[in-house]
Design brief:
This protein is of the alpha/beta class. It folds into three domains: 118 residues, Rossmann fold; 245 residues, pyruvate-formate lyase- activating enzyme; 55 residues, Nucleic acid-binding proteins (OB fold (Dihydrolipoamide Acetyltransferase, E2P), Beta Barrel). 36% of the residues lie in helices and 22% in strands. It contains 14 helices and 19 strands. The strands form six sheets. Strands 15-16-17-19-18 form a five-stranded mixed β-barrel. Strands 1-2-3-4 form a four-stranded parallel beta sheet, with helices on both faces. Helix 9 packs parallel to helix 10 and helix 13 packs parallel to helix 14. The longest helix is centred in the first third of the chain and has 25 residues. The structure holds 5'-deoxyadenosine and iron/sulfur cluster (SF4).
């Protein structure tokens, strides 16, 4: 989502003459787009701002050039004035729902005197309606934000407070943005939302659509070759979405479906509003319609009150599902969330031990899954050059990164590759067609 937002900020600043740069020392404006989900990400912002202060000072002292520093995203939303108090060299603070106003804010900065501008409203207007329609170059695989915010209020999570209430973009604006992307060469679209499968909208004849129906509609666009979506909540995995996995060839056989914990007691304390059995039932239904679907999840270890038994339940669930990949985190206490005031916080060393056993199991599953792909042939969308000379990079239908030798002219095209070797985090392959 932040990658998408950064692109849209770039679009909004383009009419003012700003372009993405690669050298911090030469930048006229530096925008950091921040994440507030865990304390570590959030604190990093302040250390980064310390570094940027020096960049700004040097430009002023050595070149008499004023560098504008912008803090955007969810830390901006949550901390607001605290940012300009701790880092007075920041010029603009802008939240995730107001970045369309960035050009106005830049124009309002006093060219001589230092002033700060803070805009972290939840505005009545929709940013999507005020962003330029010109999407710039997005590459063969692009993101398209269809839904934002969250009303689920998991007890550990800041998203409902930083991103605001759940909101779905209209069918029309989504299809228009998809067309714009496709006409500029995009072949794969990943639909984005904090709760992407909570997306809903009105179809052309006034009937209610869910994400599954939207995927069926997108699949009808001939030049679009693949569709993905992320991130989903188990409560919103409805029949139509499951049947899209059965019927839409362009929908890739991969699903990121976070469960967070395998213990019903902890799931309840997390306010997830489903049990481990409910989740397993969804997985069974998905696998019955799309046998090869690869699964991924998010896990939190050390949620307040998590016992050894609760943690063992999480390991058991992982064993049952067999994941192709996963993200896992130590519980991080977030100010203002219900879980932060719970008494039974788990000691840091226990969290670390649990995280390392959990990751050991998940890494083993990921490697085993990658191994099953050896000698398999895939059609892959070539996305970019790989760091190693002469190599290209793509993703398999199951979302693994795959590397192979090939000419740059293949970027943006579909190549048929045969996997030669599985690694922990990627595959090596050869082009066969
Ligand atoms: N502590 C640790 N992990 C968290 N996540 C969200 N909030 C927290 C928190 N307070 C994780 C969840 C979520 C992912 C995006 O980040 O696993 O699915
Ligand atoms: Fe956060 Fe996801 Fe829960 Fe919403 S559903 S509160 S974004 S973890």
């Amino acid at each position: 989502m932040n990658v998408y937002d950064s692109d849209r900020m770039k679009d909004s600043l383009a009419p003012l003459g700003y372009q993405e740069g690669s050298d911090l020392q030469e930048a006229d404006m530096i925008v950091i787009n921040t994440c507030h989900i865990r304390e570590k990400a959030s604190e990093k912002v302040f250390s980064e701002l310390g570094r940027l202060r020096k960049v700004k000072q040097r430009a002023e002292q050595e070149q008499n050039r004023r560098v504008k520093i912008v803090v955007a995203g969810c830390v901006a939303q949550a901390e607001g004035e605290e940012i300009t108090r701790r880092a007075p060299w920041v010029d603009i603070v802008v939240g995730p729902q107001t970045y369309h106003r960035l050009p106005d804010l830049v124009a309002k900065l006093d060219p001589v005197q230092r002033n700060h501008l803070i805009d972290i409203e939840f505005p009545p207007e929709l940013k999507f309606d005020f962003l330029p329609e010109n999407l710039g170059q997005r590459g063969p695989a692009a993101f398209l934000s269809v839904q934002e915010g969250c009303d689920k209020f998991c007890s550990f999570c800041v998203v409902p407070y930083t991103r605001g209430a759940e909101f779905s973009r209209s069918v029309e604006t989504i299809l228009d943005e998809a067309k714009t992307l496709i006409s500029s060469g995009t072949k794969e679209i990943t639909l984005l939302g904090q709760n992407v499968n909570a997306w809903h909208g009105l179809g052309p004849s006034g009937n209610e659509w869910g994400l599954g129906r939207l995927i069926f509609a997108l699949a009808e666009m001939p030049e679009l070759q693949r569709i993905r979506y992320t991130t989903s909540h188990p409560l919103d995995m409805d029949e139509e979405l499951i049947s899209a996995h059965a019927q839409v060839d362009k929908l890739m056989p991969y699903l990121h479906l976070p469960i967070q914990s395998g213990s019903d007691r902890i799931l309840q304390a997390m306010n997830r509003r489903h049990t481990a059995a409910d989740y397993l039932n969804i997985i069974d239904r998905l696998r019955s319609v799309r046998t090869d679907i690869a699964l991924s999840s998010d896990f939190i270890v050390g949620f307040p009150g998590e016992t050894d038994k609760d943690f063992a339940d999480t390991l058991k669930l992982i064993d049952k599902v067999g994941y192709a990949s996963a993200y896992s985190f130590k519980y991080s206490m977030r100010p203002g969330t219900p879980a932060a005031s719970k008494f039974l916080q788990v000691p840091e060393e226990v969290k670390s031990d649990r995280l390392s056993s959990l990751q050991q199991l998940l890494d083993a599953q990921q490697f085993a899954f990658n191994k099953t792909c050896e000698s398999m042939k895939f059609d892959v969308l070539v996305e970019q050059k790989a760091p190693r000379k002469g190599q290209l990079n793509a993703r398999t239908p199951y979302m693994q990164s795959v590397y192979f030798d090939g000419p740059e002219s293949l970027i943006g095209k579909i190549a048929r590759v045969k996997v030669s070797q599985a690694r922990n985090n990627s595959l090596s392959a050869e082009i066969i067609q």
